[in-house]
């Protein structure tokens, strides 16, 4: 019991955020949301997706600003029989998710800059905590009953809010090798910030005693343990809170190649190198003593390779396909570049990937519409998943439009809905037998952006 309570409190301190494709955020523009396939882009968002493709843009300056609004619901269903509640909801709200791109193109060369949340980018708010937080407290009635005071109920106020954002500042240089091939080299500076706020308060139980509590009212658990001569347990069930921040920074090098072998056909290739990221604790408050100020954790960013093909089926109709392979397990190009996620990487069975398809149609000279589909898949052992952090295979559907407001100014609108495949994990207890925990999720995202060319 004592170890379980310690684990519940520790969870408040070390809970990580979960990101698309385990770590990397691919949604970096309104164009992405409305197509879900941008790896062969020769538009302004090629700054992120296909830097070598910027050579296909017109000479001059190109600047764009996007913002996304993301709503996600995460649900954990736990069948442990003693819990008061079996369903726990976490809400992720991201009202501001900005991306900025700037390109200067002249002849055979292009210089570009990009800014955006390359990972993270949101906050998860669990107003009732999670089952792993509450489960140890659900066994208090049995423990108190075993000490001679019949107890049937418990209650506890648990709350947790975590946020995570990795700000990426990217600089690229692109060059045309000839009329068909162009290449790009770039680097992204990543500044990562995770924040954690959590509390366990008002732990109550209803021990029945003919003199001290004849009506079996709810009493503070710390008070009961103190009366029973159990100061250790009393300390564990006293109010506790955590307020901490983790920060770290790193550089991610990247290479890109663009090939346009035929009129209307464009192929983009990109490789981003694995980068080491170490996060350092900056603790404001830690009643548990388990979140030491200055302690370090590892959150490496895996390498990934992208391939994209875009083809103009008709002058007014373009189709595109994109494939991303994330080297979460093994990188064929750098086999010695092992990830360090403080042990969690051992539960990744093979590399994750996503596959996107998009179609874009010109309705008029000033309006086009688009739609896309994105499949994302993981191969994770059961030990990877938990109520605190889990990754689920998903299917995304994008839609949107571009409106040319004037010769130099474009308005992009995009939306995306993502459905997730439920995952589950089985736990075994010598006393309560086997019970199931299920993980569910859904996401809506909307984006708006302006692009200016001069």
Question: Nutshell version of this structure?
Answer:
The chain has 454 residues and is mainly beta.
Explain how this protein is built.
- The protein is mostly beta strands and 454 residues long.
- The chain has one domain (2-453): Porin (Beta Barrel).
- Helix content is 11%, strand content 56%.
- The protein has 7 helices and 18 strands.
- It has a 14-stranded antiparallel barrel.
- Helix 1 runs antiparallel to helix 4 (131-138).
- The protein is elongated, with a radius of gyration of 26 Å.
- Mean pLDDT is 90; it is low at 1-20.
| Largest beta sheet: strand ordering | 1-2-3-4-5-7-8-11-12-13-14-15-16-18
- The average pLDDT value, as a whole number, equals 90
By CATH's scheme, which homologous superfamily applies?
Outer membrane protein transport protein (OMPP1/FadL/TodX)
Approximate strand percentage: over 45%
In angstroms, what separates the terminal alpha carbons? 67 Å
Oligomer: single chain
Helix residue percentage: 10-25%
Model regions low in confidence, pLDDT < 50 over at least 5 residues: 1-20
What is the overall silhouette? elongated
SSE string: HHHEEEHHEEEHHEEEEEEEEEEEE
Major sheet size, sense and barrel closure:
14 strands, antiparallel, barrel
Q: Under CATH, the topology is which? A: Porin
Number of strands: 18
Q: Count up the helices.
A: 7
CATH class: Mainly Beta
In CATH, the architecture is Beta Barrel
Broad structural category: mainly beta
The number of distinct structural domains comes to: 1
Radius of gyration, in Å, reads 26 Å
Task: Draw up the topology in text.
Layout: H1 2-14, H2 30-35, H3 46-49, E1 60-78, E2 87-106, E3 109-126, H4 131-138, H5 140-146, E4 154-176, E5 181-205, E6 219-220, H6 221-227, H7 231-236, E7 240-262, E8 265-272, E9 278-286, E10 296-298, E11 304-314, E12 317-326, E13 348-362, E14 367-380, E15 394-406, E16 409-420, E17 423-429, E18 433-453
Antiparallel strand pairs: 1-2, 1-18, 2-3, 3-4, 4-5, 5-6, 5-7, 7-8, 7-9, 8-11, 9-10, 11-12, 12-13, 13-14, 14-15, 15-16, 16-18, 17-18
């Amino acid at each position: 019991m004592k170890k379980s309570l310690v684990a519940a409190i520790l969870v408040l301190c070390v809970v990580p955020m979960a990101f698309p494709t385990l770590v990397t955020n691919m949604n970096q523009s309104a164009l992405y949301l409305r197509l879900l396939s941008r790896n062969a882009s020769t538009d302004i968002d090629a700054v992120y997706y296909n830097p070598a493709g910027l050579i296909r843009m017109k000479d001059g300056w190109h600047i764009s600003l996007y913002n996304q609004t993301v709503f996600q619901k995460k649900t954990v269903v736990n069948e442990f029989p003693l819990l008061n509640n079996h369903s726990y909801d976490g809400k992720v709200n991201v009202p501001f998710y900005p991306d900025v791109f700037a390109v200067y193109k002249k002849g055979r060369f292009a210089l570009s800059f990009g800014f955006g949340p390359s990972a993270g980018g949101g906050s998860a708010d669990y107003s009732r905590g999670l089952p792993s937080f509450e489960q140890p407290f659900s066994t208090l009635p049995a423990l108190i009953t075993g000490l001679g005071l019949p107890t049937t109920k418990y209650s506890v106020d648990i709350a947790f809010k975590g946020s995570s954002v990795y700000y990426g500042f990217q600089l690229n240089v692109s060059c045309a090798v000839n009329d068909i091939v162009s290449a790009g080299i770039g680097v992204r500076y990543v500044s990562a910030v995770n924040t954690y706020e959590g509390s366990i308060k008002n732990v109550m139980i209803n021990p029945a005693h003919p003199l001290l509590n004849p009506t079996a009212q709810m009493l503070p658990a710390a008070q009961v343990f103190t009366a029973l001569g159990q100061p250790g347990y009393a300390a564990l069930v006293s109010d506790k809170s955590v307020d901490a921040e983790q920060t770290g920074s790193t550089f991610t090098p990247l290479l890109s190649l663009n090939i346009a072998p035929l009129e209307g056909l464009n192929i983009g290739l990109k490789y981003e190198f694995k980068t080491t990221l170490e996060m350092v604790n900056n603790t404001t408050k830690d009643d548990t003593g388990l979140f030491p100020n200055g302690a370090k954790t590892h959150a490496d960013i895996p390498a990934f390779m992208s391939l994209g093909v875009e083809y103009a089926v008709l002058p007014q109709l373009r189709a595109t396909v994109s494939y991303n392979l994330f080297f979460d397990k093994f990188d064929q190009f750098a086999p010695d570049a092992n990830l360090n996620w403080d042990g969690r990487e051992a539960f990744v069975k093979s590399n994750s990937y996503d596959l996107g398809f998009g179609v874009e149609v010109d309705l008029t000279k000033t309006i086009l519409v688009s739609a896309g589909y994105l499949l994302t898949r993981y191969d994770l052992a059961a030990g990877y998943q938990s109520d605190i952090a889990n990754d689920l295979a998903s299917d995304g559907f994008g839609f949107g439009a571009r409106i040319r407001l004037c010769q130099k100014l474009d308005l992009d609108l995009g939306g995306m809905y993502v459905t997730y495949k439920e995952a589950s994990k089985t736990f075994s207890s010598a006393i309560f037998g086997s019970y199931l925990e299920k993980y569910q999720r859904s996401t809506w995202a909307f984006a708006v952006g302006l692009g200016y060319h001069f």
